[in-house]
Each structure stands twice: as C-alpha cells, then as structure tokens.
Amino acid sequence: MARGTFANVRLINKMVPQVGPTTVHVPSGEELAVFDAAKRYMDAGQQTIILAGNEYGSGSSRDWAAKGPYLQGVKAVIAQSYERIHRSNLVGMGILPLQFKAGEGADSHGLDGTETFDIDTNGGKLEVGQDVTVRTSTGKTFTVTCRLDTDPEVAYFQNGGILHYVLRKLM
Description:
The protein has helices spanning 34-43, 67-71, 84-92, 151-158, 162-170; strands at residues 22-25, 30-33, 48-51, 74-79, 96-100, 117-119, 131-136, 141-146. It is α/β, with parallel strands linked by helices and 171 residues long. The protein has a single domain, classed as Aconitase, domain 4 (Alpha-Beta Barrel), CATH 3.20.19.10.
C-alpha cells in the first residue's frame, strides 16, 4: 500500500516534466518512482516534506492518505490549503501540517523542491495555529501557519501521532 501512495498516473510533480508517479532524487538527479526515491532518502536518514497546492488530500483514500506518506518518511507538508479530514489524519500519523500564508505558495517563494528545509518548531513546543519560520538551503525564509488546530492535536503531534500518544498514556 505504501508503494501505491503516490502512484497515481495523474500525479503532477513539478520536479519532473511529465505527469505521473515519478520524482527526482535530488542528490543523484535520477528520475525514479516516488516510492523508490522515498526509500533512498529514508535509507540515507534524510527526512522529507511535501510542498503542495490547494486542498491537499482531496479525493484521497481515507485509510492510506496519511499512512502512506508516513511510511515513506514524510515529516511535514507545506500546502496552500488542506482537505479538512486529511489534515487531521496527517496529525494523527505524526506528520506536521503547515500552511502557506494567503496568496503564497511554492511558486511565489520560488521553491522547486530541490531545496533542503529547516522548519523552526521551537524544539517541538508548538501551539495551536502559531506561525512557524521556514528557511531553505537557497537562503529563502518565509512564515507559514502551523495547522495543529486544537490542543489535543498538539499533544498527538508532540508524541509522534495518536497511536504513540495513546500507548504512552496506557503505559
């Protein structure tokens, strides 16, 4: 199921010239299936994020829409907006949902996906809806909104997702 997470033939990834389930593995420049690139990043201990447009998560299968990215090593998503349930499912899996400010997006910040990102989470001490600073390896700095929308969601994220939160509570 994780292999099929980004396997849609209509997937638009601006890092590659054609539509489909491929991406560029940034260190090597190779064009690979998204799953294979994600595995390489995970094997190298590199965390990944997703840069997304409007209504990220719309039309996705509820069960695997957040599990798949989690299993592929995604730690955060920076989107222009989210499908409501998908955003909360990301939090449940321990993936940090961040949102560009109104009128902003990857294109307006000149991001092409080859950058590395430093997301200032204040050592994990996040609050509901707070602003978060993002710095890129290309010298760009911008502010996004942390889309942890409730205190319980903050607790879930700080524990690595709802399952880890529940297990810690039981112990």
